[in-house]
Amino acid sequence: MLYVLKRQGNPYTAPYTAMDTAHAERHSTLGEEYENEPVPVSARKSLFSVSAVWVGFPMIMTSAVFAGIVVYNLGFASGMAAILVGDLILMGYVGTLSYLAGRSGKNFALTAADTFGTKGFRIVSAFLSALVIGWFAFQTGMVGSTLNLSMGWSAPWITLLAGVLFVALTFVGIRAISWIGVVASVLFIPLGVVAVVLAAGNGGIGSALSYGGGAGASAFSFGVAVTMVFACFADSGTMTADFTRWARNGREGALAAFAAFPVAYLIAQLAGALVVALGGAAAPGTAGGDFLHVLVSAGGVLVPLAIVFVFVNLGSVCAHCLYNGAVGFGNITGKTMRQLTIVLGVVGTVAAVAGIWSYFATWLNILGVLVPPIGIVLILDQLVFARRRATAALAWKPFAAWAIGAGGALLTHFYAPQLSDAVVAMVVGGLAFTALAYLPVRAGQPVLVGETA
C-alpha cells in the first residue's frame, strides 16, 4: 500500500512515500523533529531545555583555543577586550535571530524561504549546511588528533569511534543534544577551573593581568581578533533557528541564545585566556588555550576525566553541527533529519578519518566571512522591512545585499586586515539591503518569478 503523508506547512518539499514509512514510525518513538514545518506550540520546550541546547555548544575547548590565541597576540587586557566586543556582537546577532525563531517556530531553512524566496532559500541553506558539515568533520578529526598527541592513541581509530558516537547522538534528536549540552558544560566548568589553578601554580592568577602577549611583531590586529571571536560561531549562530524554534516565544528564544552568548562562550574563553596568560599553554601561538595537556600532566583521576571530557566536549559541538546540516539539507531534499544525519555523518566521518579535515580550517574560515550578511538581511527583512516584502521564488534584493556585504568582507580580509571582516560584512550588507528595500521596481529592473512590480 502506498503511504503518502503531506508535510504540513512547507510547500517547498516533497511528500512522504512508502520508503519513508519505517522512518516515520521510528521517528514517532524518538520524537518528531518538525524539519519541514514550524514547531507547533504544543511541542515547544521550556527555557531551560532550549538554553541547555545552546549552552553546551560554545562552552567547548575550541573556544578556549581561539581565546588563548587572541590573548597570545594582544596580551590579556586587550585580548579580553576584543573577546568581549566579539561576544557582544554575537549576542545581538544570534539573540535577534533567535527571537525570530522563537516567535515563528520555523527552522533556518523555512525562515530563509520567507526572505530569499521559495526557491532561493535552497542556495543559502545549502551553503550554510555544507559549512557546518565541514566543521563536523573538522571537530571529529580533532578528537583523534587530540588524544593521539596527549595519549599516543591511534588517531584514525579514535576518530572513527568518535564519528560513530556523534552520529548516533545526533540521530536521537534535539532531546539528546540538549542533554549532551548540559553534561558538556557540567564537565567543562570544574575541569577548566582545575586547569587554571594548575597553570597558576604557587604564583596565583594575578600575574595573568599583566601578561603582554608573546607574538611580538607578528601579532594580529584588534579587528582580526574580533573577527576570530565572531567567526567561530558565525555559521551555526546564523542557523540558530534550528535550535531556538523550540522556544515557547521570541523572548525565551532570545534568552536561550543569551545563555550561550555571552555567558557560556565567555566562560570557555576565560579559561583559555588564563591558561595562556599564566604560561600553562604548550603552544599558545597555534593551540592557544588548549588545557588538556595540563590535566593529563597532573595524572591520577584527571587522566580518565580528560579523556571523557574530549569526547563529551567535542561531541556536543559535533552533534550541533551535524543537526544543523541535516535539518538544512532536509528542507532541500525532502528527506528527514534522521535520514540525512546518517548520510552526512558518514561523509563527515570519512573525511575526518582520511585526514582531509586538517585542510578544512583555512577555507572554512574564509567562507565564514561570507556568512554574517545573511543573518543581517534576515533580521532587517523580517523585523524592519516586513511590510515591504514581495513574495518571490528567488528574491534578488536579499541576494544582492548578501553579495555586496560578502564582497566588502573579502576586500577587508585581504586589503584591510586591521579591521574586522565580520563587522564590515554586517554593516555593508545591512546598508545595502536597506537601500535596496527602498528601491522601487521599475521597468528595466529585474522582476523575478513571483515578485510583483
CATH C-level category of the largest domain: Mainly Alpha
CATH superfamily of the largest domain: Hydantoin permease
- What is the N-to-C succession of helices and strands? HHHHHHHHHHHHHHHHHHH
Mean pLDDT: 88
Q: What is the domain total for the residues?
A: 2
Give the percentage of residues in beta strands: under 5%
Low-confidence sequence ranges:
1-27, 447-453
Helix/strand-derived class?
A: mainly alpha
| End-to-end CA span | 47 Å
Helix content: 55-70%
**Can you count the beta strands?**
0
Rounded to an integer, what's the Rg over CA atoms? 22 Å
CATH architecture of the largest domain: Orthogonal Bundle
Largest sheet, described in full? none
Question: What spatial form do the alpha-carbon principal axes imply?
Answer: globular
Word description of this protein:
With 453 residues, this protein is mainly α. The chain has two domains: 45-366, Hydantoin permease, CATH 1.10.4160.10; 369-453, no CATH class. The protein contains 19 helices and no strands. α5 packs across α17 and α8 (174-200) runs parallel beside α12.
Topology summary:
Blueprint lengths: L20 H10 L16 H9 L5 H14 L1 H29 L3 H9 L4 H31 L3 H18 L1 H27 L21 H10 L2 H5 L2 H4 L5 H28 L14 H7 L3 H32 L3 H17 L6 H9 L3 H13 L11 H20 L5 H17 L16
Task: Quickly list its features.
globular; 2 domains; disordered C terminus; cytosine transmembrane transporter activity; mainly alpha; Hydantoin permease; 453 residues; transmembrane; 0% strand
Quick structural gist:
The protein has 453 residues and is mostly helical. Helices cover 68% and strands 0% of the residues. Residues 1-27 and 447-453 have low confidence and may be disordered.
